[in-house]
Specification:
The complex is a heterodimer. Chain A is mostly beta strands. Chain A has no helices and eleven strands. Chain A has strands spanning 5-7, 10-13, 19-24, 31-37, 44-50, 53-56, 65-69, 75-79, 88-95, 104-105, 109-113. In chain B, the strands form two sheets. In chain B, strands 2, 4, 5, 9, 10 and 11 form a six-stranded mixed beta sheet that branches. In chain B, strands 1-3-8-7-6 form a five-stranded antiparallel beta sheet, with no helix packed on it. The relative contact order of chain B is 0.33. By secondary structure, chain B is mainly β. The N and C termini of chain B lie far apart (41 Å). Chain B is 0% helix and 56% strand. The chains are: A mainly beta, B mainly beta. Chain A binds chain B through residues 4, 6, 31, 33, 40-45, 48, 50, 55-56, 91, 93, 95, 97-108, 110, and chain B through 9, 32, 34, 36, 41-46, 49, 51, 90, 92, 94, 96, 98-108.
């Protein structure tokens, strides 16, 4: 089966600019997650979708971050305006949803804000 | 809320030596536990998972982990390290406090393997 697809793989922007990341989960996976992984740290959940509805966005900085999942399939994560501290790898993952499954991760997008 | 603690941000072993990466969990209910591996510039790959069946779980690449409820631990081991095992390893616990599964990750342990 095809894995979780993410693009772009790398992005360099200046602070205060905007950026968007795209994710295509594994077909049939109802649950989609965006994680932020800052260098030297474990992944931190930003937002979790069940189909096209948000079930957890408690850690999402909503003043600058937004995400959507159209038609319960692809998802886009946007940052506007970006700050230096947003430099990180943004990982998308999908799951069948049951707690014993774990996730399948994409390769991530490495964002550098200068 | 569930959490995991990984002891040691870096572990160094020689090729052929035993690998032991430590993970302790905090959970109010029987947990589901996972180990993931991350190679440079790649996403996370599932190594193994504990889902309340056998307490000794075997995963890919010769890794295994033992769930010990009395010690609230889920340590990852491999009898003989290979150079290709050098990577970052993350322990994670399933958290269902929103009614939907999410994984809470530890801070990771970087495994260094020397010839």
């Amino acid at each position: 089966e095809a894995g979780v697809a993410q693009s772009p793989r790398y992005k360099i922007i200046e602070k205060r600019q905007s950026v968007a990341f795209w994710c295509n989960p594994i077909s049939g996976h109802a649950t989609l997650y965006w994680y932020q992984q800052i260098l030297g740290q474990g992944p931190k959940l930003l937002i979790q979708f069940q189909n096209n509805g948000v079930v957890d966005d408690s850690q999402l900085p909503k003043d600058r971050f937004s995400a959507e999942r159209l038609k319960g399939v692809d998802s886009t994560l946007k940052i506007q305006p970006a700050k230096l501290e947003d430099s990180a790898v943004y990982l998308c993952a999908s799951s069948l949803g049951a707690e014993y499954y774990g996730y399948t991760f994409g390769s991530g997008t490495r964002l550098t804000v200068v | 809320a569930q959490s995991v603690t990984q002891l040691g941000s870096h572990v160094s072993v020689s090729e052929g030596a035993l690998v032991l990466l430590r993970c302790n969990y905090s959970s109010s209910v029987p947990p589901y536990l996972f180990w993931y591996v991350q190679y440079p510039n790649q996403g996370l790959q599932l190594l193994l998972k504990y889902t309340s069946a056998a307490t000794l779980v075997k995963g890919i690449n010769g890794f295994e982990a033992e769930f010990k409820k009395s010690e609230t631990s889920f340590h990852l081991t491999k009898p003989s390290a290979h150079m290709s095992d050098a990577a970052e390893y993350f322990c994670a616990v399933s958290d269902m406090n929103t009614g939907f599964q999410k994984l809470v990750f530890g801070t990771g342990t970087r495994l260094l393997v020397s010839p």
